[in-house]
Amino acid sequence: FKGFDPNVLCVATLLFEGDREKVLQHEKQVYDIATKFGGLAAGEDNGQRGYMLTFVIAYLRVGYLPSPTETIVN
Question: Which residues take part in binding substrate (predicted)?
Answer without folding.
Answer: 61
